[in-house]
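Data availability (excerpt). The following record was deposited with the supplementary files.
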Amino acid sequence: MSSQNPVFIPGPTNIPERLRHAVNMPTLDHRSASFGAIFKPLFPGVKKVLKTRDAEIVIFPATGTAGWEAAISNTLSPGDKILACRHGMFSHRWIDMCERHGLDVHKLTAPWGAGAPAAEFQAVLEADKDHEIKAVLVTHNETATGVRSDVGAVRKALDAARHPALLLVDGVSSIGSMDFRMDEWGVDVAVTGSQKGFMLPTGLAIVGVSQKALKAMETARLPRCFLDFRDMLNTNPKGGYPFTPPVQLLFGLGESLKMIEEEGLENIYARHHRLAEGVRRAVAAWGLKLCAHSPDLYSETVSAVVVPEGFDGTRVVVHAADKYGVAFGVGLGDVAGKLFRIGHLGSLTDVMALSGIATAEMVMADLDFPIKLGSGVAAAQEYYRGTAAALSKAA
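Predicted structure:
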């Protein structure tokens, strides 16, 4: 696969040259004042991205999956009941993790292509008169299906039921690219990673922890050691780590936060919407459909394109890599082979997006899909042409 071509997977994303250079730095003593000068400014910067004033920020040298584990192990105890819905691969994997930790998972199920069912959550929470449910888990952006769930609606369900459960949210493929409102939505633990909206290499699990979650930490009894919030919160304010930190990645995060500040969060959200809408118009022009069941569920960071009956979505991805040196995402779990995924997040422009749309068209034409070559590109071009001036004014 050519390293000169952009990737169109929903993470890790393309790394801007500015960030590649930022992480290319010599070894620095992580117990020195120089490290503290790099490290301390990261916390207010991440808070701005999460849109929180009161949460504490914890940054582990790990991935989003470790962030999931930190969220549950620091706030829950063995046998605790939690509420979650399986409606995609990543919601499924978080549920699986909880069960492996000995938690009692009340599982709802929804079709892959649907979002987290806030109304069903509310019904379960209202029936839980003794408040046995200790946490509600939500995947904000289900990367496997290109579905965005309404976290605000889940918070309203909790409030309507007058239920004290924690709200734990996987924002790995949304935070930094799509609007996320930790305080407004009453999110107690928000999880993301460095390799998506922050446009960095994989290696940082970035977690926002509310004051309510910090209080729950005092009585939580699930085993934790490396992922213990307490160790981080005791050492981070002094500019230190309880173990060896990934200095280069942390320096890169500082530069990423500067780039986010320069572009502006609202402009970033508008750019991602524009990129996504261009892809969606291409998909419609091909005569194909998205896995997401309705427009209100459409993700701004990944589009899962359902292939026609009798065709194999995995072949699209393999052929794109083998013949054109371009990476798309395969279908996972219940939708394996039924779709392919176009990631459009992080360091991406409309010009780059057009190259991905054109490549997908060539691949599908090679594989005898019933599409017209150039149709999707033309539809995306028309949309991008018509919105370019508005975007440049917003920037």
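Summary of structural features: The first helix runs from residue 17 to 22.
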